[in-house]
């Protein structure tokens, strides 16, 4: 038997307990390890998801940041582009202002030269007349314009500097935005697989100069707001510069016209004074010649009295030698003494008269010399005035050197609306600069009207006279009076041509001025009344054919024409009276008139004083209402109903219907185009209480009425149409003979005499 080891022996239960304890501990450790593994897996999954989410969130925020920076970059680029455009526009406006400033050098030089020329006047010709006043005002105005334009140029330069500074700030901010955008875009393209990623030292530090998002937005917003404010100021400045240029240009042109008119008026007065002085010199020279002749005759008579005086003295002396008592104081002695006394008194009287005559002759010669000197000074002054006028032609030769037409640029008006074009240029001056001066336009239209109107109206006059001798009708009476009115208008039109040729200065005898203006305007308004009567006659013949045929008598048309002439003459009588009133009162439309009270006005029915305008304006308004509006409304009513009735008639040929409609529409067009603009000037003048300058242009359409009336004659009367057809046929036959050298083609068969002169009944 083996010996038992000496040790502490455990029981089976203890062994079992130990095993159970080991198993329990192992199970617990495995459970703890499993929990730790689960936590590790959960932590790994959570951190992976967090990392992926943070990366995606960062990419999203980077994307938003890139979009935000891109938006601000685009906004800055747009603002910078607008600033560049505004700088270009302001630079252009500044250059135009500089051109306008440079263009004032010539007018200033011309005005100064005119003042220096007029300083060469001598004696009483060196007067402070309206010309000198206007020239000084023109010089002061040009200097003020130069100061204003120079101030605008300086302000524009300062504004350009402000815009340049704003552009610099925008450029710097835009460059920073571009660089930041490139960096953010490169960061957005990086991934964990990118080869250029690495760990950095302290990447979470805050760089110096960093700003908050609010400060970043405020910086860019401040740059944009500052640039927009500078652009608004620049736009307002450009608008002010353009308006100022236009206003100053209008002032310069108005002052230039006033100065030139004063120069022409002064030259006219100088010519009148020179002619009057020359007439006085001629009369004085004639008086000197007569006085010298009388002095010679007085001297001859004085010499002739010496012999009778010697004879009487000798007889008296010889009779003193009578001896003794024969030395008697008889009748012979008394007669000889009386004869001697009479002869001595006669000689003394002749000597006194001779002395007075010689003294008067000396005074006449002295005054003649003074008048010659004054004539020389007047001729010098007139020559200086003419040189001044020729010097001022430099302002109008070619294109206007002062006017600078600016192209349309975006502006900001006072209401804040942008992209508007400034329309500050005066239409009247643009029209004259583009086409021709006003007097040349008037002269051209007058000549055209005269050349066309005279032959056509003479032909119509002869035709209507022949027709009235055969078979008079009311329409022929009315059209004959309309022809007479046009011929009377054309008869006095050459005087208006001369006025336009002389630059709207009346150089003809002044007695023709009231008569020309009176008949000129009477025929215009008489034509409106006659055209209205023609429309009424046509309407009555169409609307009430049977009733009107019963009372259709030529004498009624004659009475109507007499009434029309009376109304026109009475309403326009003030046109004849007013020029004589201006002449008698010396009111030539100026408050500083220096001419004599008997000198006629330099213009004809163009310039008015405020007192005269208070009379003229209401009369013109009355002419507009009574002699234009009422006839125009009646004409419209008659012809509109005429066309409506005619369109409903089935038995009218198409050719005849079109001719009648053409007559109605043609008359309405003539009424509106020829008489509308001129009568509209009456209303505008009454509202503004001044005589409008564009009345002369509006009157041109009324002048053309003398050319358009024959068209109405052609449409209204078959006699005129047949006369014109025969005339054209005769001319065509003669041309055919000259061209072919053969007999003309067989003419159309002649109509019977009753058919030839048969007048068409009113449709």
Q: What does it look like?
A:
With 763 residues, this protein is mostly helical. The chain is 78% helix and 0% strand. The chain has helices spanning 12-103, 105-118, 130-189, 213-304, 306-319, 331-396, 427-434, 438-470, 474-491, 493-501, 512-543, 545-550, 554-571, 573-585, 610-648, 654-688, 695-703, 705-716, 718-740, 753-756. The protein is elongated and about 245 Å long. The model is unreliable at 398-436, 587-597 and 741-763 (pLDDT under 50).
How would you classify the helix and strand content by structural class? mainly alpha
Largest sheet: none
What is the β-strand count?
0
CATH superfamily heading of the largest domain:
Rhodopsin 7-helix transmembrane proteins
Domain G-protein coupled receptors family 1 profile: 456-713
GO biological process, one term: cilium movement involved in cell motility
Protein name: Tektin 2 (testicular)
InterPro entries: GPCR_Rhodpsn, GPCR_Rhodpsn_7TM, GPR40-rel_orph, Tektin-like, Tektins
């Amino acid at each position: 038997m083996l010996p038992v080891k000496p040790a502490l022996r455990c029981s089976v239960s203890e062994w079992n307990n130990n095993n159970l304890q080991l198993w329990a501990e192992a199970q617990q450790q495995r459970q703890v390890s499993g929990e730790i593994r689960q936590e590790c897996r959960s932590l790994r999954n959570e951190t992976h998801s967090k990392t992926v989410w943070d990366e995606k969130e960062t990419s999203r925020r980077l994307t938003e940041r890139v979009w935000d920076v891109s938006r601000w970059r685009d906004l800055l680029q747009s603002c910078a582009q607008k600033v560049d455009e505004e700088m270009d526009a302001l630079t252009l406006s500044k250059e135009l202002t500089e051109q306008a400033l440079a263009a004032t050098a010539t007018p200033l030089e011309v005005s100064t030269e005119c003042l220096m020329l007029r300083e060469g006047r001598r004696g009483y010709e060196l007067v402070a007349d309206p010309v000198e006043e206007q020239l000084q005002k023109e010089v002061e105005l040009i200097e003020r314009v130069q100061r204003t334009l120079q101030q605008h140029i300086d302000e524009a330069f300062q504004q350009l500097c402000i815009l340049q500074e704003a552009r610099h700030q925008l450029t710097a901010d835009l460059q920073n935005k571009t660089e930041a955008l490139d960096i953010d875009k490169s960061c957005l393209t990086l991934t964990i697989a990118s080869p250029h990623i690495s760990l950095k030292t302290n990447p979470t530090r805050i760089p110096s100069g960093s700003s908050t998002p609010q400060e970043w937005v405020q910086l860019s917003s401040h740059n944009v707001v500052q640039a927009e404010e500078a652009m608004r100021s620049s736009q307002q400045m450009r608008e002010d510069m353009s308006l100022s240029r236009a206003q100053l240009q209008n002032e310069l042109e108005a002052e230039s016209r006033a100065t030139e008119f004063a120069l022409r008026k002064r030259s006219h007065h100088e010519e009148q004074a020179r002619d009057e002085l020359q007439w006085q010199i001629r009369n004085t020279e004639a008086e000197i010649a007569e006085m010298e002749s009388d002095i010679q005759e007085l001297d001859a008579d004085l010499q002739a009295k010496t012999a009778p005086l010697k004879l009487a003295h000798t007889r008296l002396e010889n009779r003193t030698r009578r001896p003794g008592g024969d030395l008697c104081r008889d009748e012979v002695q008394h007669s000889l003494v009386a004869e001697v006394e009479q002869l001595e008194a006669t000689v003394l009287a002749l000597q006194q008269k001779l002395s007075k005559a010689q003294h008067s002759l000396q005074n006449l010669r002295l005054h003649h010399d003074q008048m010659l000197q004054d004539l020389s000074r007047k001729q010098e002054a007139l020559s200086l005035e003419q040189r001044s006028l020729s010097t001022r032609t430099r302002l109008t030769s070619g294109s206007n050197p002062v006017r600078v037409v600016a192209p349309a640029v975006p502006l900001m008006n006072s209401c804040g609306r942008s992209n508007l074009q400034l329309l500050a240029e005066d239409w009247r001056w643009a029209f004259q600069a583009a086409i021709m001066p006003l007097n040349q336009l008037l002269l051209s239209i007058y000549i055209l009207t005269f050349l066309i109107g005279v032959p056509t109206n003479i032909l119509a006059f002869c035709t209507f006279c022949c027709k009235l001798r055969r078979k008079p009708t009311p329409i022929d009476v009315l059209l004959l009076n309309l022809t007479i009115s046009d011929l009377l208008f054309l008869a006095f039109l050459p005087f208006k041509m001369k006025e336009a040729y002389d630059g709207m200065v009346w150089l003809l005898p002044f007695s023709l001025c009231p008569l020309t203006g009176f008949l000129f305007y009477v025929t215009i308004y008489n034509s409106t009344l006659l055209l209205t009567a023609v429309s009424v006659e046509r309407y009555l013949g169409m609307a009430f054919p049977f009733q009107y045929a019963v009372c259709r008598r030529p004498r009624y048309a004659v009475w109507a024409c007499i009434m029309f002439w009376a109304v026109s003459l009475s309403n326009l009588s003030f046109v004849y009276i007013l020029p004589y009133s201006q002449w008698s009162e010396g009111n030539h439309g100026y408050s500083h008139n220096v001419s004599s009270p008997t000198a006629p006005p330099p213009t004809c029915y163009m310039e008015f004083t405020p007192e005269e305008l208070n009379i003229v304006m209401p009369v013109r308004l009355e002419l507009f209402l009574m002699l234009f509006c009422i006839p125009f409304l009646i004409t419209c009513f008659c012809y509109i109903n005429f066309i409506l009735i005619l369109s409903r008639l089935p038995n009218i040929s198409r050719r005849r219907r079109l001719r009648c409609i053409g007559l109605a529409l043609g008359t309405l067009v003539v009424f509106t185009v020829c008489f509308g603009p001129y009568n509209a000037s009456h209303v505008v003048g009454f509202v503004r209480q001044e005589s409008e300058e564009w009345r002369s242009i509006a009157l041109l359409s009324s002048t053309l009425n003398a050319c358009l009336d024959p068209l109405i004659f052609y449409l209204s009367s078959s006699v005129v149409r047949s006369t014109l057809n025969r005339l054209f046929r005769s001319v065509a036959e003669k041309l055919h003979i000259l061209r072919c050298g053969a007999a003309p083609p067989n003419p159309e068969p002649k109509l019977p005499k009753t058919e030839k002169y048969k007048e068409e009944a009113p449709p």
